[in-house]
Amino acid sequence: MLINAFPDIQSSEDDLVADGDAVVVRRTMRGCHRNEFMGIQPTGAVATFTRIWLARLSGGKLREQWVGFDALGLLRQIGGMRTSE
User: Fold this and answer.
1) Contact, 58 vs 21, CB < 8 A?
2) With bands split at pLDDT 50, 70 and 90, how would you rate the model's confidence at 16?
3) Closest among 61, 68, 58, 59 to 24, alpha carbons compared
4) Torsion angle in degrees (nearest 10) through CA of 53, 58, 64, 69
5) How far is CA 41 from CA 20, 49, 56, 69, in A?
6) Where are the domains of the chain?
7) C-alpha separations of 35 from 2, 12, 13, 24 in Å
8) Taking the chain, what is the end-to-end CA distance rounded to the nearest angstrom?
9) For the structural domain made of 2-77, what CATH number should be given?
10) How confident is the model at residue 26 (pLDDT cuts 50, 70, 90)?
């Protein structure tokens, strides 16, 4: 979904934390809104947002993972949410 809407998306790793069987990665994502995203037609706006990935490993294998991102911030940047003035 993100890759299609932001085909030039780039990311930089801001934090990587590992403790026991848990890993957390925080990344800054940046790309141009070129295709539909969550029903919002392409705007050409460049958006920057944060993505967080959490994982639990066991026996050298990925057992669980969770991904979250600043959807509200992203939607505001591409015109999908109005900001209060």
Assistant:
1) yes
2) very high
3) 68
4) 0
5) 43, 19, 36, 20
6) 2-77
7) 9, 22, 25, 29
8) 30
9) 3.10.450.50
10) very high
